[in-house]
Write the structure tokens for this entry.
Amino acid sequence: MASTSDIKNGLCIKYNNDIYKIIEFLHVKPGKGPAFVRTKLRSLTNGKVLDNTFSAGHKIEEVRVENHKFQYLYPEGDDFHFMNTETFEQITLNKNILDSPDLLKEGENVMVSINTETDLPLSVDMPASVILEVTYAEPGIKGNTATNATKSATVETGATVNVPLFINEGDKIKIDTTSGSYMERVKE
């Protein structure tokens, strides 16, 4: 058993007969009354996000997990196939376990959290950013670059991202996987 002082981002806990991963947390010590911890939890079974407040010192049941490096192989409907880079064992995960499946490129390495008690995969941690090639973007109009105007562009995985007007087809761009937003153009 752990307490609220052990809460950190990425911690997996049992709560309400389900397994949740802590996405965000904030320790709050008000001037009047007891301290508490405000958390944002994501269910690892159905992907729903839940806001919850734990009082200070509240006991939480921690789930032991191991992180393993897996390589993304290919999609098949709503299922995604991954291979362990050490043992070459393959697993199939559903689309709702992934944070941003539309930004996942074949051959990309991810970290998969596996429950040590049941040996079942719980979550997939994407890299902080991915570099993808733009496959379709409307041409930018000269003179429209004075403002922070954006246009939508389609990348090689099929995802649509808002990009600045100077991005063209064939450009490689860096995308933040947590928000799905454009970060910068990558020169090779």
